[in-house]
Every structure is written in C-alpha cells, then in structure tokens.
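BUG-271 | component: ligand-complex export | severity: low

The export step for 1,3-dihydroxyacetonephosphate jobs runs without errors, but we want the raw record kept on the ticket for reference. Input record follows.
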Amino acid sequence: MKDINTAPFLQEMVELTSQMYRLGWDERNGGNISFLLHENEVAPYLATTSSLRTLPLGFSAPALAGEFFLVTGTGKYFRNVKRDPETNLGLFRIGEDGQTAELFWGYRDGGRFTSELPAHLMSHQARLSVDSENRIVLHCHPTHLLAMNYIHPLDEKSVSHTLWQMSTECIVVFPEGIGVLPWMLCGTNEIGLATAEKMKGFRMVIWGMHGVYAAGKTPDEAFGLVETAEKAAQIYTLTSHTERINTITDAQLKELAEAFGVSYRQDFFDC
Ligand code: 13P
Ligand code: ZN
C-alpha cells in the first residue's frame, strides 16, 4: 500500500483547508468539506475489505451507497488539518444500506464526521442528479458575504443581482446566481433537505446569518465560486455606506453573459 499522505486527494484537502483558514473563512471549527472519491483512487492507499468503525449517518442516503468520501471532522479546526490530517479528517464509504459510514481511515481520536453531514450528502445527491461529475461540497463562513446578510435583503434574486453588479466576472462565474436560505438551525436534516433542494438549481447557497455552501466538479470550482462571491461581497460592504455614482448596468451584465455564452437567470433582472 502507498502512504496515504502522498495521495493527491489528501494533499488537495490539506491545501484547501489551509487556504480557506488563511482567508478567514473558517474560524475555530467553522466550515466543513466533503470530497467524493472513486474507489480506484482510494485502492492504492487503503485496504477496503474491513473498516475501522461503523458510524450511523442519522439519515438515509441510498443514492450514495458504496461511495467513498473524505470529510472534515466535527469540532475540528481547519488550521490543524495540515499538521494532523489523520485526526482532523476521515475517509469512509457509505454502507449498502445507505444509512451508515464505514470508516477506513482518520478521526483517529475517536471523532466523527462533521455535524453538517446531512447538508453535505444531501447536496451531493442533488448536484449529482444535475451534474454527474460533481465531487466537492464545501461550507464556510466568509466574512464579507456574511456581513452582507445583515444589511441587504435576503432573497436570491436581489442578492444575486447585487453580487453580479459588484464585479464584472461574477455573472460569468455564477450565471445561475446564488441560492438563499433564511436562518435555520444548523446540523439538522431539515437544513440539509432545504440546502439540497436549492442545490438542484445553484452551486452556491447562502445560509442566512451563518455562511455559504458551494459545490463543484473540482475543489477549484467550489473554492473559486466562494472566492468570487466573497470578493463581490467585500466590494459591496466597502461601498454600501457611500453614494454609488457608477454601476454595471443590466444591459452590460446581459451583454457579458451573452458574450461568454453562459446561461443566466433572466428572471433575476427586473426586465
Ligand atoms: P462542524 O465542526 O461539525 O463541522 O461544524 C462547523 C460548522 O460550520 C457548523 O455549521
Ligand atoms: Zn457553519
């Protein structure tokens, strides 16, 4: 068996958590990531004949039975992942019953997967139903996007439109806009179901006054979505208290989307 610390998927996860921590998106244990792995990626590093432990999911994810995931641990700090991946991350397979996680590596201190696993796995199922190549779901608490939640109407049409206006690249990067959920109790199956419902139409979903979820085919895609939205929200918060004397017009936003050939939410414009 090869050393799992050399596995590209593990190195990617270490890099991702470190960068998200450095950007201030994941204070303390804030945020969580799930990375769908293919069996042939895992096989060179781990024997998958017998698991270390079996953990109940607390919900049912039948469409993901047999799938492998690398997932951050609950209560674990992103800043510590690089120094000790085996304690702060876990690699498991969803059991054939769709209701258990068979742990093959990680959570070394007896820990378990993130409390937000319902939102992660339900979002994976939702994204896979519209994009068979989706592999990453990540959650974090980016500062400016969160700040915007307190001073901007929290509906997806106006939040999406405002973010598009804040930077020319936005409508090209997330032409579908950004989904918005009101404040809800986190760590529950209910917020998981609500997030997954939004994930059928969006790759990013704001959890009101809490943070954001993003999904993608690759870590770069999901990370890039948050990075772009967070930058736009930063520009919004930097300019919201002063008179705006210039803007990107709706006609220019549409011109951009058409020039880049992206399919955008036309109903997020007033006309
Ligand atoms: P976990 O430590 O359980 O991953 O929770 C962090 C978080 O951001 C909750 O929304
Ligand atoms: Zn959170």
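Assignee comment: Attached the raw record above. The two ends are 60 Å apart (CA to CA).
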